[in-house]
Design brief:
heterodimer, A: four-stranded parallel beta sheet, 15 helices, 14 strands, about 20% strand, B: mainly beta, globular
Chain lengths: ~400, ~325
């Protein structure tokens, strides 16, 4: 029994064909790279009621559409190289069925996996990829632990920024503004603790001071109002900003403009660090956003951007090395020499030590982008993008 | 003390040179005009040759690329948000006509007879030809993603178009109406400048911090000019506009985020010098004799006047919100 719901036919674009029709066809038969975009049907992130909330920084639709757009954008380059890419959408019924779906990909010799999975399922999928000899791209999870386990030559890449990159971006912004007195509110869930961990690390790196840390709770119970009432939670007098770390999104959305004092809210709402924004105005952002909306009928999120970039990455590496294997392409990418254009103004490359894509992070509110990190003046000995996230010397990975 | 007389005489020579330059300016000043399109003010700002006495002409939404009409009496301007081409009458100083274009047009080139406009249309990923008299679309040729720079060869037979996404230059046969060749250049190619003899096509690579020089005989890249600025990394150098000087000896390139323009020797392909201008230098324009370069700075909302003889910025003047293209008329 096949648990894989795959598309009857792969996605092969025809609209770009006219561009290439006139160019002389390459002598050899086109070879095809098969790429699977993997998700699970019962993923909570994609429950319709949750998707319509559009929590900042969270995915609002499966990443297959962004992958198709990435492929669309790469058609000329592929055609000129005499290559083609076939996308296969794999939606496993549930967590239990995921292993079988991945096994099926291995059996079918589909060796390039773009993973659109909840954080909890990402580790097992990355392990399965290594076992199958596939190159896996994490396009949806910010978990730092995944990066710490992607050391050395393993064919794993992360196009979505890590939580520590996102936290560093926000901390750089506060340091540059000299808004250094921070009241921190955090949720009680394990996922909130991970957000908090990245924030504490970032705050320390950029010299921020925590005036107080409180744990919030979603509750209407008057006996719990100290933990539930935004005004009571924020009545500490010395802070300049309120950082809120809320993996769900409901509490932080209610906190903006509800604080005791007139203080900006940032973190999970208010000013948020994002991989992408639907109102990003520069470096081709409006064009990419418009193309995406046309295809997906919804605004482009950071996860969509990471999937689009993942496909562009594979194409860039493969065109450079058409006889490449998952291992050799991953090694090429992780050498840092391959540059990918992510429409964020700087050429992007992969970190050798953990396979993370170096990238600017957008600091944005719901309506627009305020700044990008690295902030002007934040410097690094080799690449300013490495001021975001876990640098080589801090990483448990020893790649070189 | 021995050096003093020498230094003194050098100072005299410099004074003489600048006096000449001033006289030359004074002579051209009454008729010269500099036109700058503003992406966010929806207008064209008109300056005199010194970048002074600005006047404003309201045009269509988000004006970007501009060209003079064949008779020189009008400016044709592309409006990126209005999806239009506008005609600005220079004597009346007003917008006198428009025609609809495809979604999000960016740059354009005119046929040698001035009758046809070839427009790159970002959202349609196409080069679209329009007949300017009838205001009708003639044909379209699909390109790679985000087509931008377009250059029509002097014989009107071919167009070169950059695709920012595909990192290629398309060579389009305008009679066959199709792409006949894709020339791989650097990352995110943007704009062109063709040498006067038509043999070298220079292309800026925004994400490659370089310029590629295409041999138009072989249609191959024959040289690459990398840019460096002391204290900056390659990633901070984002070349966009480029222009051969009127004497053809040098090519000036705007370096975008590096806030500089560079002068490249056309023969040796060596960078001769760089000049600090404003933030995100893009548009370039020369006066007729090539002594004065006008540079539009999109992020500091101004225009810098560069003395190309001295290699120095003379002054920067406010030029409206997000100045894009500059045209000079003498």
């Amino acid at each position: 029994m096949n648990l894989v719901k795959s598309m009857a036919a792969g996605w092969v674009l025809s609209c770009a064909a006219q561009v290439m029709a006139a160019t002389p066809a390459p002598a050899k038969a086109a070879s095809t790279l098969q790429v699977a975009v993997v998700s699970v049907a019962d993923d909570e992130r994609y429950q319709p009621r949750r998707v319509e909330k559009r929590w900042p920084g969270q995915s609002t639709g499966r990443l297959i559409t962004a992958a198709r757009l990435g492929l669309d954008d790469a058609q000329v380059e592929l055609h000129d190289a005499g290559l083609s890419v076939r996308l296969r959408e794999v939606v496993a019924d549930n967590e239990a069925a995921l292993a079988a779906s991945l096994q099926q990909l291995q059996n079918d010799k589909v060796a390039y996996w773009l993973l659109d999975l909840p954080d909890a399922l990402m580790p097992q999928a990355l392990q399965a990829a290594q076992k199958a000899g596939a190159l896996a791209i994490n396009a949806s999870s910010p978990l730092d632990a995944l990066r710490a386990q992607s050391c050395g030559a393993v064919p794993v890449l992360h196009t979505y920024p890590s939580q520590s990159m996102l936290a560093d971006a926000l901390a750089q912004f506060l340091a540059a503004k000299s808004w250094k007195q921070v009241l921190v509110l955090q949720g009680a869930k394990p996922a909130d603790a991970l957000l908090m961990q990245a924030w504490q690390r970032a705050g320390k790196r950029y010299g921020l001071k925590t005036t107080e840390t409180k744990t919030f709770k979603l509750s209407g119970d008057p006996r719990e109002r100290d933990a539930a009432n935004p005004k009571l939670l924020t009545n500490e007098r010395n802070h300049e900003v309120v950082a809120v770390w809320d993996s769900e999104g409901e509490f932080s959305r209610s906190l903006v403009y509800a604080t005791q004092w007139p203080r900006p809210v940032l973190g999970s709402n208010g000013l948020t660090p994002l991989a992408w924004h639907a109102q990003w105005e520069r470096y081709g952002g409006p064009q990419l956003n418009r193309r995406f909306v046309k295809l997906a009928q919804r605004p482009m999120t950071g996860q969509d951007w990471a999937a689009w970039t993942g496909i562009k990455t594979l194409v860039t590496a493969w065109v450079a090395e058409p006889k490449g294997t998952p291992l050799s392409l991953a090694a090429r990418l992780r050498s840092g020499q391959v540059q990918v254009d992510g429409f964020k103004g700087l050429p992007l490359s992969y970190r050798a030590w953990d396979g993370q894509l170096r990238q600017p992070v957008l600091l944005a509110h719901a309506d627009g982008v305020v700044q990008t990190a690295p902030m002007e003046g934040v410097l690094h000995p080799t690449d300013n993008l490495d001021t975001l996230g876990v640098d080589e010397k801090e990483s448990p990975c020893k790649a070189r | 003390m021995l050096n003093a007389p020498l230094a003194h005489s050098i100072r005299w020579v410099l004074c003489l040179v600048s006096a000449c330059a001033l006289t030359a300016w004074a002579q051209t000043a009454p008729t010269a005009r500099v036109y700058v399109s503003n992406e966010k003010d929806n207008q064209i700002v008109v300056f005199d040759a010194q970048g002074q006495n600005p006047e404003r002409i309201a045009v269509c939404p988000r004006p970007r690329d501009m060209k003079f009409s064949a008779d020189g009496a009008r400016i044709l301007v592309i409006c990126g948000d209005g999806n239009q081409m506008g005609w600005v009458d220079l004597a009346q100083k007003k917008l006198v006509g428009t025609m609809p274009l495809g979604d999000s047009p960016e740059m354009f080139a005119l046929s040698p007879d001035g009758k046809t406009a070839y427009v790159t249309v970002e959202d349609d990923s196409a080069l679209i030809a329009y007949d300017l008299a009838s205001k009708k679309k003639l044909f379209e040729v699909k390109t790679g993603g985000e087509p931008e720079g377009v250059l029509v060869t002097p014989d009107g037979r071919y167009a070169y178009v950059t695709s920012e996404v595909a990192n290629v230059v398309h060579r389009i046969d305008l009679q066959q109406k199709k792409v006949v060749q894709n020339i791989k250049v650097g990352n995110r190619p943007r704009r062109f400048s063709l040498s006067a003899d038509g043999k070298e096509l220079w292309v800026s690579n925004e994400m490659g911090a370089s310029v590629s020089v295409i041999d138009t005989g072989t249609q191959q890249v024959k040289a690459t000019v990398p840019f460096q600025i002391a204290g900056m990394r390659a990633t901070d150098i984002t070349p966009v506009a480029l222009m051969h000087s009127p004497d053809g000896r040098t090519v000036w390139v705007s370096l975008g985020r590096a806030n500089h323009v560079a002068e490249v020797d056309a023969a040796s392909k060596q960078v001769k010098r760089t000049v600090l201008v404003g933030k995100r230098a893009w548009g370039l324009g020369f006066n007729k004799i090539g002594t004065q370069l006008y540079v539009t700075n999109g992020m500091s909302d101004d225009m810098t006047l560069v003395d190309t003889v001295q290699g120095k910025a003379v002054r920067s003047v406010a030029a409206g919100r997000v100045p894009h293209t500059v045209l000079v008329r003498e």
